[in-house]
Design brief:
Layout: H1 3-12, E1 16-20, E2 23-28, H2 32-41, E3 51-56, H3 61-66, E4 81-87, E5 93-101, E6 106-111
Antiparallel strand pairs: 1-2, 3-6, 4-5, 5-6
């Protein structure tokens, strides 16, 4: 399903579109309390189209990332994750990310762009 098809489907269910970082995104379905109850007590859908995910594989993935992250990536066990800042060689903060460790890959999740 493309983003356009997803947007049309969500809009047909009452989704309200809002501006998020200059892009049209699903903002809400009208009742925040009802949405919260659905997510915490039942089931819900949270569109993540405004995020970027990068899957990193290879035997040296954690070692490579360890050098420019502010958290201990090498110690992550499968099924666990952590937050980190990505830094330049001079230590300047370039971005904020979340890492999730799988059996054979690391998933980097961050804001789009």
């Amino acid at each position: 399903m493309t983003d356009d098809a997803l947007s049309q489907s969500l809009a047909s269910c009452g989704a309200v579109v809002g501006d998020v970082a200059g892009q049209a995104r699903m903002a809400h379905f009208g009742d925040a309390a009802q949405e919260y109850r659905a997510l915490t007590e039942k089931v819900g859908l949270v569109p993540m189209s405004g995020r970027s995910q990068i899957e990193m594989t290879g035997a040296d993935r954690a070692t490579m990332l360890q050098g420019f992250c502010t958290n201990d990536i090498k110690s992550l066990a499968p099924g666990h994750g952590c937050e980190a800042f990505i830094t330049s060689g001079q230590g300047k903060t370039l971005g904020y990310v979340n890492f999730f460790c799988g059996d054979d890959a690391l998933l980097l999740d961050t804001s789009a762009g």
